[in-house]
Design a protein that fits this description.
Rossmann fold; 6 helices; 9 strands
């Protein structure tokens, strides 16, 4: 049986102090790609879901007007807040929020996430992507169809091929990765085009999805 949200939160809070010292090469590669692919404008608000200790949020704070981090682990967010304070960043904040209920009602021009969504079942991942697609995209007042961030960047454990049972990259007791096809289908079903797919490992990748509007992809 998969762990509950509360159990995941407790597990990550216990590991928070040493979390940044124990990343795999694949995690680091994904984080770097998520930051590059997010490419926020100076006037953008970025919503970083499953923000953890702020690896993505803190890096994007220099390029965006505001970054909002959401996570279920208070211990992880305390680490993120300390790092933000040490760096003198005043345009980033960290509060409780879930993928399917971020507890955020402001604009989200860009949404990012790294190594977090795979803890949900495939059905829950789809619900999370539906929730993201329904956020306020923060567009111009003249637009009548301004629903959804213009860009979503997801770095995560995902299956490009059948996973090698002798070398699993994930822990089946706590992780539930989806196939790349399942994730792409979820994005396209809510009005996004997958514009870039980076394969970091046969079980790790980064999906960049952009909102599709009347007449073609939004720019």
């Amino acid at each position: 049986m998969k762990k509950t949200l509360a159990e995941h939160a407790d597990r990550f809070s216990e590991a928070a102090a040493a979390y940044d010292d124990d990343h795999s090469e694949e995690y680091e590669a994904c984080a770097s790609l998520v930051i590059d692919r997010a490419a926020p404008n100076r006037t953008d608000t970025v919503l970083d879901l499953g923000t953890g200790t702020g690896a993505i949020a803190l890096q994007l704070a220099a390029d965006a007007e505001r970054v909002v981090g959401r996570d279920i682990s208070e211990g992880m967010m305390e680490q993120a807040r300390e790092k933000a304070a040490d760096a003198g960043l005043d345009n980033v904040s960290f509060e409780y929020g879930e993928f399917r209920d971020p507890e955020y009602d402001g604009p989200a021009h860009v949404v990012t996430s790294n190594f977090a969504l795979h803890h949900l079942s495939d059905a829950e991942k789809h619900e999370a992507i539906e929730t993201i697609a329904a956020l306020d995209g923060g567009g111009t007042p003249s637009r009548s169809d301004d629903v959804g961030p213009r860009r979503v960047v997801l770095g995560d454990v995902m299956f490009f091929d059948e996973p090698d049972p002798e070398e699993p990259f994930f822990d089946p007791e706590v992780d539930d990765p989806a196939t790349v096809g399942t994730l792409v289908d979820s994005f396209t079903s809510v009005g996004y085009a997958v514009t870039q797919l980076d394969r970091v490992h046969d079980q790790v990748g980064v999906i960049t999805a952009e909102r599709v509007v009347s007449g073609g992809r939004e720019t």
